[in-house]
Request: fold
Amino acid sequence: MRLHDYLDFQAREHPQACFAVQGDRHVTYREAVAESNRLANAFVSAGLNVGDRVAVLSKNSIEYAILFFAASKAGVAPVPLNYRLALPEWAYIINDAQAKMLIASANYVNSVDEFRGEIATVKRFVAIDADGAEGWDDYRRWIAEEPSAAPERGITEDHDLYQMYTSGTTGHPKGAILTHRAVCAQMAQISLQTTGGPDERVLVVAPLYHAAAAITAFVSIYWGGCLYIQEDFNPVEVIRALSEEGIVQATLVPAMIQACLVFVPDIAQRRFDNLRRITYGASPIAEETLRRAVEVF
Reply:
């Protein structure tokens, strides 16, 4: 199996089901497949070959989620960048991955312009929601004229799916390469203990440049769920969503759980009737925090 096979399957079976929600935006599976196909064709039209790297610099968005599936169809491998890094660290990772393209949201266009002369392998710069930025293609116009049918490329489960960089605590970050086979196996494993169905909402608030957030999003699509995407972490907004937006599952790190317990005054009075599971990881959790979270949720 390839990552995009799951998106295509759900779109055939439940075309009008919700793929993702962000703010006032609502995207169905039918719409998500069409956009992923146009973006995949844009990658091909730009001259990217199977195995080429595409750096991505953005906070969470619907476009970010769709990009993983589009890249899967085109056979290119996203290189998600930690938006909290310094400019030289971004440049190092882009150069190390030998990325041929950089896609960035509007917030980071000016920052990239400061070091774009240092990233020689990048031949094309695409900006999301930054129409008119000099030297950048506008994302919407770039994909608008592309076909809504998937490109024909012989992608197999042994091709690279994405390349994520470690935190580099003992030196420079290292690019960890994950294949379709590895990620799809992980999705199947996770689905043994967490399941759902069409239109059931999964909170995506951890950053999509992180492996935990990415696999959370993929597993939701695996069983046809709806991504409820928050651009950034705000404990008050997270608790509001968990109690008011029909969220059934969420992935948080212990620091996020602690912040929700401390900085949301009415959390103990909230109801979480739809919430079935919170998964945490990436660091140890204090016993007191865990016991309080179990009590509250």
